[in-house]
């Protein structure tokens, strides 16, 4: 029998425990075999607005962060494909690679409210069940049910953590410890990431 695979895409600039707690709880709630944290190569909706850390560094952070947690893994499909990252392409690639599997695409409330802006959203709808997790600071999106989506909602611990705040903390010299897994904090220090002018 094919696997139930969660695809949790993100810019992960940097990854934080909000992402990881959402991933493991969605995995548990929906009995997924694994959740792949797919690192966006060029997150086209963010890249025009701010400088995004290099994809290989963001991937290394995700790899360090998932560590030995069973069933969580870092995905480099979008990096290997190159160019701008579209979830529709990633799902098609996963579907082709694992034709027997059932795919689930995980998003937080903030991203769930923006789905209409995604490239080829009808393909995303066709290829995967949408899994929506709560996130502080965003409202629960409405109207997805009647819109052709297969939807699952999973309630996860509310963690008011964002990569934006973490980048600001790093520039100010405030600690990232415990908000970002230790191995990823080590990588950030070793590579001098997010350190602003210091
Ligand atoms: N604290 C959180 N709780 C639940 N889901 C989250 C949380 N933070 C991020 N997510 C979800 O993780 C996915 C990837 O998010 P992303 O990498 O853009 O992180 P972010 O913290 O939102 O970054 P930024 O602050 O730079 O926009 C999105 O679906 C987002 O909704
Ligand atoms: O496919 C798209 O057009 C698309 C547009 C915006 C965001 N996404 C995906 O949604 C996920 C979260 O995006 P972001 O920019 O909030 O990190 C990440 O996997 C992105 O690739 C996908």
Automatic annotation (TrEMBL):
<dbReference type="InterPro" id="IPR004821">
    <property type="entry name" value="Cyt_trans-like"/>
</dbReference>
<dbReference type="GO" id="GO:0004515">
    <property type="term" value="F:nicotinate-nucleotide adenylyltransferase activity"/>
</dbReference>
<comment type="pathway">
    <text>Cofactor biosynthesis; NAD(+) biosynthesis; deamido-NAD(+) from nicotinate D-ribonucleotide: step 1/1.</text>
</comment>
<comment type="function">
    <text>Catalyzes the reversible adenylation of nicotinate mononucleotide (NaMN) to nicotinic acid adenine dinucleotide (NaAD).</text>
</comment>
<comment type="similarity">
    <text>Belongs to the NadD family.</text>
</comment>
<keyword id="KW-0520">NAD</keyword>
<keyword id="KW-0662">Pyridine nucleotide biosynthesis</keyword>
<keyword id="KW-0808">Transferase</keyword>
<feature type="domain" description="Cytidyltransferase-like">
    <location>
        <begin position="7"/>
        <end position="169"/>
    </location>
</feature>
<dbReference type="Pfam" id="PF01467">
    <property type="entry name" value="CTP_transf_like"/>
</dbReference>
<keyword id="KW-0067">ATP-binding</keyword>
<protein>
    <recommendedName>
        <fullName>Probable nicotinate-nucleotide adenylyltransferase</fullName>
        <ecNumber>2.7.7.18</ecNumber>
    </recommendedName>
</protein>
<keyword id="KW-0547">Nucleotide-binding</keyword>
<dbReference type="InterPro" id="IPR014729">
    <property type="entry name" value="Rossmann-like_a/b/a_fold"/>
</dbReference>
<dbReference type="InterPro" id="IPR005248">
    <property type="entry name" value="NadD/NMNAT"/>
</dbReference>
<keyword id="KW-0548">Nucleotidyltransferase</keyword>
